[in-house]
Amino acid sequence: LRSTTVIDNDRFPPVPPNLIEALDKRFPDQCPKLDEIDRMIWFAAGSRAVVDFLIEMHKRQNETLFPNGE
Length: 70
What we know:
The radius of gyration is 15 Å and the shape is elongated. It has helices at 17-26, 38-65. The model has no long low-confidence stretch (mean pLDDT 85). Helices cover 54% and strands 0% of the residues.
């Protein structure tokens, strides 16, 4: 298995900003509460990891399309 830190821009479909915004609202980057059970904490962390991955892909795709920040 490849690490999720290795990103292949040529094989990943474009990531629309509105998808990132919707997922970011649904799975915000937040600290767990003291009363949450471990499984829910891990589930939330995994969900957020997907959002963070898509944000990174979108950033890299836009750097590829607009290398000079245009």
